[in-house]
Every structure is written in structure tokens, then in C-alpha cells.
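Re: that chain you flagged

S.,

Sorry for the slow reply, it's been a week of failed gels. I finally had a moment to sit down with the sequence you sent. For the record, here it is as I used it:
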Amino acid sequence: MHAHSRCRVCGNCKAALVASLRDEGSRVIYVGDGSNDRFGASHADLVFARDRLAAVCGEKGIPFTLWRDFHDLVRPGFPGFTAAPITPLCEPRGKEVN
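Prediction finished late last night. Pasting the C-alpha cells below so you have them in one place:
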């Protein structure tokens, strides 16, 4: 679905997906750990990297925040974390929403 027409390195071109999201006006936060994630990360607004991606970002000068597990990414106070306001469209606990 997101293959690149001229590059055959990846079957799913993460850079093309990130670029298209940014073209649509989205802010892209990229989370990855592998060397192929470098392509998408290089186009993102904010990068959370670990393992091989962290090494590549360091080598290439791509700014990133190191993470260990997904709990880091959702912990309040973690760099880049901004809590979204809660706007319930339903009430899973059985209360009525106006």
C-alpha cells in the first residue's frame, strides 16, 4: 500500500507514509527500534527511538528521545508527552452522556 515506486529497499515505505501524513497537515510522532525505521524517522516531527534506530539516529544526527518500553511513551512527564483532553462520545460504565 505504501510501496515506493522507485525504491525497492522496503516493501512498506515508512518514509512515504510519514511524508504523506505531514503533507495532509498531521504532526507525526515516530516510534521505532529497527534500522529500517530510519527512513520514516528522518521525516517525522518527533522521534522516539531505541536499539538499532537509536544508534542510526545518533550517527545521522536525527534528534530523538530514547525509550525502553511502551510504558515510557505514555507516562506523564516523559519528553514529548502531552495528555489529550478527554471528550467522551459514550460511557462504557453505563452512565448517560449528554
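What I noticed first: The helical segments are 14-23, 37-41, 51-60, 70-74.

Talk soon,
D.
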